[in-house]
Amino acid sequence: MSINWSQVYSGPIGQILSDLSPTVFTDLATQESQSQLTTLQDELSSNKSEISAWTTLQSDAQSFNSALHTLTEASTYNQLQTSSSNNVVTAVDSSALAGQYTLTVQSVAQAEIDSGTAANMTVTDPNSTLSVNGTTMTGAFSLSVGGTTINVTIPTGGTSLNGLASSINSAASAANAGLTASVVQNGQGDYVLELQATQTDQPITYADTSGSPLYDLGLVSSTGTGTQSAANVLQAPSAAEVSFGSTFNSADAVTSSNNTFSNLIPGLTVTVNSPGTTTISVTPNVSAMEQSVQTFASAWNQWVSDTQSLAQAGQVVASGSGASESFSYQANSSQVLTSAIPTAVLNQVQQLLGSYSTNSGSLYQSLANLGLTFSVSGQLSVNSTTLNNAITTDPSAVQAIFQGLQSSLQSGGALGIVSGFSLGPTSTTGEAIDTLTQQDTNIQNQETLLNQKTTAEEQQAIVHYGQWVNQVAQYSQQYDLLNAIFTSETSSSNTSGVL
């Protein structure tokens, strides 16, 4: 709380106390410690920026190294893709042998669908109680599909067609039976019960166990308690059948109950969509290989961009072309690292990438032969047409180039150029980050001690301020007393002179 000293003490004493407030007093007492704290905080901020910069370059170099390693692996160049001549089948996965496979689909797997009829009773309202010749429908029946049987009993008071469908679905769900009941309207506008199996190649069987509700609904063709097949089959159950060749060969056909064949062609999962003949082609996935090369170029470009931004004081920039081309130096205001190592490592790697050649008999011996070229700024550009031709024509030569590059980058030391810069705690980036981190810890410890010192100085300043105010108060009292005496004597003197 601030004090208006001018109201407490008049004259110069009040002004002195107002000018030298407790805040001013403590600021003066802790000025040196606060200055040291500011210096430490600036160092911390600088260290954090440097740690972030080193971490970024470390990650960039590791990404580049990983992308290069991918391009040395045989699996990168063994990637395959599948396509079919039409939509008869869909083939996925690509570990099959490259080639063409002609298949004929005779049938697709389908589930049985049965429908009731209005031959024995007519239902015009699916929510009305079912009745036969004016008598409420009663009884019980069973339905079987895929080896699972469900039993349904019609309540004594009867049920509607919608209610019966709901009872069937509840019983099927409880028994985990692959069966669904629904109510549909036929062409005459009457409502009938429709049953569909949820498993292909599995017939639905029926049996009235009490009364004749299934017969009355038109689902079976006769009364009685024996097991029957559906009277009105809309779609018969069947398995998918496929054979090799342009015509169907039943002797060599392969069947599936779910339209999916996982062992028809090793390495491929084939799903049949419709009957017909198709040719599946398994070919090298050139696009995926190109993407691996593009990832390598992108990783390099990111490393270049971050190094130029974080570790270079500036760069020479070209403008114009030909005889009018000129160069200028642009300072880098965002530079964080003053170490020359990041730029030196990058230049060393670029020189190796640009000059390397396998010296083989192939048309493709260097990055330039693959369509990868360096710009003035050090960025890699990729000519997609040249790269596609190289991968399509001689993928082994492409792999050999990247294998040679990796070997060259690893030579001259246990880790190699890129790994020595970025891999592990003893790498250039690892040691720089560790050193700065330790410095941060030391600075934070110094901050803690300085904060403690500052707190003590503030407390001591408040005590001294109180003592100083007391002393000033005493001076003020003496001043007031002397002033009163002086005023009294002056007044007496003036009075005597008048007489």
TrEMBL record:
Using the UniProt record, give the first listed, main subcellular location: secreted
Instruction: Say if the entry is tagged with keyword Isomerase.
Output: no
Q: Could you name the Gene Ontology cellular component terms for this entry?
A: bacterial-type flagellum filament cap; bacterial-type flagellum hook; extracellular region
List residues of the Flagellar hook-associated protein 2 N-terminal domain: 26-111
Keyword Ribonucleoprotein belongs to the record: no
Which domain of life, per UniProt? Bacteria
Occurrences of domain Flagellar hook-associated protein 2 C-terminal (ranges): 247-483
Q: Which terms under GO biological process does the entry name?
A: bacterial-type flagellum-dependent cell motility; cell adhesion
Q: Which UniProt keywords apply?
A: Bacterial flagellum, Cell projection, Cilium, Coiled coil, Flagellum, Secreted
Matching InterPro entries, A to Z?
A: FliD (IPR040026), FliD_C (IPR010809), FliD_N (IPR003481)
Q: Where in the cell is it found?
A: Secreted; Bacterial flagellum
Q: Which Pfam families match?
A: FliD_C (PF07195), FliD_N (PF02465)
* Family that this chain belongs to: Belongs to the FliD family.
Q: What does this protein do?
A: Required for morphogenesis and for the elongation of the flagellar filament by facilitating polymerization of the flagellin monomers at the tip of growing filament. Forms a capping structure, which prevents flagellin subunits (transported through the central channel of the flagellum) from leaking out without polymerization at the distal end.
How the protein assembles, per its UniProt entry? Answer: Homopentamer.
Q: What is this protein called?
A: Flagellar hook-associated protein 2
Source organism per entry reads: Sulfobacillus acidophilus
